[in-house]
Description:
The chain is globular. A hairpin with a 2-residue loop joins strand 5 and strand 6 (122-128). By secondary structure, the chain is of the alpha+beta class. The chain has 2 domains: 2-254, 4-Layer Sandwich (Phosphatase 2c, domain 1); 258-285. Strands 2, 3, 4, 5, 6 and 9 form a 6-stranded antiparallel beta sheet that branches. A 5-stranded antiparallel beta sheet has the order 1-11-10-7-8. Helix content is 39%, strand content 27%.
Amino acid sequence: xxxxxxxxxxxxxxxxxxxxxxxxxxxxxxxxxxxxxxxxxxxxxxxxxxxxxxxxxxxxxxxxxxxxxxxxxxxxxxxxxxxxxxxxxxxxxxxxxxxxxxxxxxxxxxxxxxxxxxxxxxxxxxxxxxxxxxxxxxxxxxxxxxxxxxxxxxxxxxxxxxxxxxxxxxxxxxxxxxxxxxxxxxxxxxxxxxxxxxxxxxxxxxxxxxxxxxxxxxxxxxxxxxxxxxxxxxxxxxxxxxxxxxxxxxxxxxxxxxxxxxxxxxxxxxxxxxxxxxxxxxxxx
Length: 285
């Protein structure tokens, strides 16, 4: 599994309230487990508080996920990886709330989170706020998480088009964040990955400057994750770099391709049919 991670303050802000983290780890039991954890958080509540919130959310989520993975049952088929990620984000939410209560200076402290736990050929995705996770295939975007924002709600209701939402003065108003509600709703997704898949986790500093089509063009143009990250960052800053920009790009070319999996399923199905025919012939000579 190859990945690259960048967090940049942009060209306008004097401080970086984003935090980004990536880690890969392999576990060995009856079968090999190839794991990766990738997190982007975008803090809110003022420079010091925003940075504190985003770093704390990354720290706690990382710690809880890794603790769970290190004490896994070796029967991997029984493990609920989505639940591991969900409970880890819930713990990070509690941690940000507790930190906010420590001092009046921390009031309003909160953060978004986009977290991806990759286990072999599956991506488990958790999101609160408007940091996003994309998955790309050769045909383009195959998945994009949904923002928790005021303009997204208006798009869902048909009040705004996607194009109008991109230029709305309210586009940066989020409706969910860690550190606000002890029972915050966390969106969870599970998606398959293939050798040709590219996963992108990013803060709004990227997608607010570049359209999905522009992001897609860059992702599909290059083979190496570092080149993709560097090019995306350069393009976002050339558009003004008005916000902090965090980008993580992940690829795993060792996975089976979509076509190979289809071929394997066809071979398996044909073999199963022949086996049944042979058993029928023997039972009815």
